[in-house]
Amino acid sequence: MKKRRIVLSLTTALLFLAAGANADVLYSTMPSPVPYNVPSLGYEATSTAEFGQGVQLTGLGGGLLSQADVLMSNWALESTYEKVGTSTGFYVPLTLNFYDVGPGDSVGSLFATDTIDAFILWRPEASPSCTGGAWLAGDGQCYNGLAQVVTFDLGALSVPNQFIYGLAFNTTDYGADPTGVPGPYDSLNFGLIGNGITPVTPSVGSDLVANSAYWNTSVASFYGDGGAGGVGIFRLDANDWEGYDPAIDFEGISVPEPASILLLGTLVLGLAFRMRPLLVQRLTKPAVNPGLENL
User: Fold this and answer.
1) Which of helix, strand or coil describes residue 94?
2) Average of pLDDT values for 131-155?
3) In this model, does residue 76 exceed pLDDT 70?
4) What distance in Å separates the CA atoms of residue 240 and residue 225, rounded to the nearest whole number?
5) CA dist., res. 60 & res. 80, Å (int)
6) Are 269 and 3 in contact (CB under 8 A)?
7) Sorting pLDDT into bands at 50, 70 and 90, what band is 93?
8) What is the DSSP string of 123-190?
9) pTM of the model
10) Cβ-Cβ contacts under 8 Å for 258 (sequence gap 6 or more)
11) What pLDDT does 257 receive?
């Protein structure tokens, strides 16, 4: 058992080093390139405290996540909130939660959480050529919001190959701790991909439950089941999201299955034992020119 623990420790260390050096996209619904704006879910507008998705990573052994990129859509104007933030944007705390998958694809236990003070760019001011206060983008189209990517630095977060994530933040009336004060966060939305008609799937990995999302809203009628499964709790909203998917990607490295980890670790340990005589010889044999040892 002691040898096995050494093997796993060595292998885990190597995987953690690799996570920072050779990160790959393990799951993605992020559009590329990022458009000027996308459909989005407004937290204040839909009485939302948390919204997310169930994830199936590439590979079978889970992963070590180095970062998460989340697509947001901001509808707030600097002219509306001149006393907030700077001339270019404002700060808002955003929390990314990670949950195990429970029975029946339910939300299991929370196993990780990360909160950042995200800087959000103001949406451009209204353009005279656009109606309804929208702004004219470089593609000649009018938009009500500005799409932008927010990045969470996760270090080397160990996750199973199936998990549920949720993005949470406070608005005036909703969230874990509503502010009670109107602010630009009331116009900050979680960006979506899709047109609400054509089914969408991740470009990398897959969704845990197709055509579904995970949602905490206090309005029963917003859920596909009319609130029968509970209201104001983060739970599966099944078969109610065909044509849309939250836009996010997770980067890191895939972790091999346990048997592969043990095999890799055994190879590492075997290599260490084979090198041991050379190391001992090098440590005990006097150096002809000690000054060259550091070259």
Assistant:
1) strand
2) 98
3) yes
4) 9
5) 48
6) yes
7) very high
8) BPPPPTTSSTT-EE-TTS-EESSEEEEEEEEEEEEEE-SEEEEEEE---SS-SSS--SS--GGGGEEE
9) 0.82
10) 61
11) 61
